[in-house]
Design brief:
Blueprint: H1 3-29, H2 41-59, H3 69-77, H4 86-107, H5 109-114, H6 122-125, H7 134-154, H8 162-178, H9 188-200, H10 216-233
Length: 240
């Protein structure tokens, strides 16, 4: 596949991921939407992100449906993705994440405008832990991303599209079991691209993009992916 083909495929898939993922959080957190006041908000958010993964990965199927630099890194370390192609994946993923965040804002612009207090709306776009301890937050992201990438590397699905449905279910499980402490970025593009979008979008009364924390959801997932590739190298893999 050409460099532009990889960039475009990953761009579209990651944009869809963020559009649907940030969209479900906006639906829950912003006032005056049909989902406003949902008492099962965390379940709705984790389900929404799971569907977002399935949609985004399916759209990016032509390039392998990575939509996540951590997945690309794990694949490259395992010999599945040529290192020469890694920059094209990452470019497409970060551009897609930024555009997906802008699209989610456009969909909910009236709700942002009607919101009396947008100080906490960074949570719609990026992760923001309730208890900020950078080292422990990084450990959480490492463990959660390790679980995701290890599964993708050893799951007996081969190139079957069923892997996208399985990955979506796993992301739902990660969110519901491991997501509370940090908001489970498990994807550097998913966090940093929308964080940059939040910093530049004209949202009245918005809070800070919290750049001091921004490295955690980038470094943690990358370490988790590298560890997963190391473990996967010695793990038995079932035939697809």
């Amino acid at each position: 596949m050409s460099a532009w083909g990889i960039i475009f495929s990953e761009f579209l898939g990651t944009a869809a991921l963020i559009l649907f993922g940030a969209g479900v959080v906006a639906n829950v957190l912003l006032p005056r939407t049909n989902a406003d006041g949902d008492t099962a908000s965390w379940v709705l958010i984790t389900l929404g992100w799971g569907f977002a993964v399935f949609i985004g990965a399916s759209i990016a199927d032509a390039s392998g449906g990575h939509i996540n630099p951590a997945v690309t890194l794990g694949s490259a370390l395992s010999g599945g993705t040529p290192w020469s192609e890694v920059p094209w994946y990452v470019i497409g993923q970060f551009l897609g994440a930024f555009v997906g965040a802008v699209l989610a804002w456009l969909v909910h612009k009236l709700q942002f405008d009607a919101n009396e207090d947008n100080a906490g709306t960074l949570n719609i776009f990026s992760t923001n832990p309730p208890i900020r301890r950078h080292v422990w937050n990084t450990v959480t992201e490492i463990i959660a991303t390790f679980a995701l990438v290890l599964f993708l590397l050893v799951a007996p699905y081969g190139d079957s599209p069923a892997i996208y449905a399985a990955a979506a279910a796993l992301v739902m499980g990660i969110g519901q079991s491991l997501g509370g402490p940090t908001g489970y970025a498990i994807n550097p593009a998913r966090d940093l691209g929308p964080r940059i979008a939040y910093a530049v979008l004209p949202i009245r009364g918005k809070g800070r993009p919290e750049w001091g924390y921004a490295w955690v959801p980038v470094v943690g997932p990358l370490i988790g992916a590298a560890l997963a590739a190391l473990v996967a190298a010695g793990a038995p893999v079932a035939a697809p």
